[in-house]
Amino acid sequence: MWLSVVALVGLYYLLRWYWERQVVSHLQDKYVFITGCDSGFGNLLARQLDLRGLRVLAACLTEEGAQQLRGQTSDRLETVILDVTKTDSISAATQWVKERVGDRGLWGLVNNAGISVPTAPNEWLTRRDFMKILDVNLLGLLEVTLSLLSLVRKARGRVVNVSSVMGRLSLFGGGYCISKYGVEAFSDSLRY
């Protein structure tokens, strides 16, 4: 019995060692588009991927955020202004991405743009308060993904939708939890 336990543990560590040694080659030829790069997770991810040598296409809401990000990164990182609540802005950003990636396609799409306020008990909020969050966190994510999905498929890339534990457990009122439930459902449907 002990021999089989030792063999299973040894096999586990051997497989773990093998998977940890796997390295993605030619990172300098791979493009990743990230939304919400003005601050927070998107900004940090854009800087980290740039340090690793990927070609980062960073979408910022403001020119100030874009300039700040460009000042902290290499020339590989390029920025575009994107408001995920506006179809014209998404179309322009999609065209901009297509011009950059060409035939290579998009190796990664990270939907990170999001807001969490206003958050309050539901009876204190209006329909407009709910729609403000849903427009950014859910509907914007849907439209960005659908507009770039063909480029992701071309490169056999991945879509990463930044969600929250609030997409599984609603602890407070407002549109945030609702939007994250929607992101979870959309991610599940994409996976299938």
From TrEMBL:
It holds the Pfam family adh_short. The keyword Plastid does not apply. It comes from the Eukaryota. GO terms for molecular function: oxidoreductase activity. GO terms for biological process: steroid metabolic process. Keywords: Oxidoreductase. Belongs to the short-chain dehydrogenases/reductases (SDR) family. This is Retinol dehydrogenase 16-like. It comes from Callorhinus ursinus. The gene is LOC112818960.
